[in-house]
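Person: I have long wanted to understand how a fold can be written as tokens. Underneath my words sits a plain record pairing an amino acid chain with its backbone structure tokens. Those tokens are not coordinates but codes from a learned vocabulary of shapes. I should like you to check that the lines agree and flag anything odd. The protein I mean follows directly.
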Amino acid sequence: MAAPQDVHVRICNQEIVKFDLEVKALIQDIRDCSGPLSALTELNTKVKEKFQQLRHRIQELEQSAKEQDKESEKQLLLQEVENHKKQMLSNQTSWRKANLTCKIAIDNLEKAELLQGGDPLRQRKTTKGSLAQTSSAITESLMGISRMMSQQVQQSQQAMQTLVNSSRTILDANEEFKSMSGTIQLGRKLITKYNRRELTDKLLIFLALALFLATVLYIMKKRLFPFL
């Protein structure tokens, strides 16, 4: 049976993939959007919501990675988190480009409609108003995307720092293992030396005992059988 932590990691990964695909689909809808500006604004709102959900799931996965007991699994999950963050940053770049393309297309379409007929003065005023509105919307959207990308960069830097710290921990642990290995080898040599000395001591005791018994037998022989 899978551990609850493993199940949570699997769910996070599935949700991240799901939100990533939904973001990509919405970005494609923005590329294909021909207006009006309100439709584009609605699509951007949906994209922002999906990005928030995606970011939340990535943060959950990162937290799960930090809670892993095994260092190897921790590093593997942190690498996955870094890959997801890079993908989200790429999606944000695509989102910005799609917005620019769409708003330029909407602006050109509005210009074409205005040039088809009507009062020239009114056309100029309407065109200026439309351009101002479109420019304001583009600026606001770009600022929002810029803020999101800045946050993403900061999170990537934090993840990178975590990876660096983890690498240092692994190196320190490796040095400790090397030191322990040297101590174990020294202990093994001492035990081997002790065993050899113990064998030598037993042999000396045996020889001393044999000599003692031989001496006792010789004395008893001289006293009991002096004629021999």
Remarks:
- The mean pLDDT is 78.
- The helical segments are 4-32, 37-66, 71-114, 120-224.
- The radius of gyration is 40 Å.
- The longest helix spans residues 120-224.
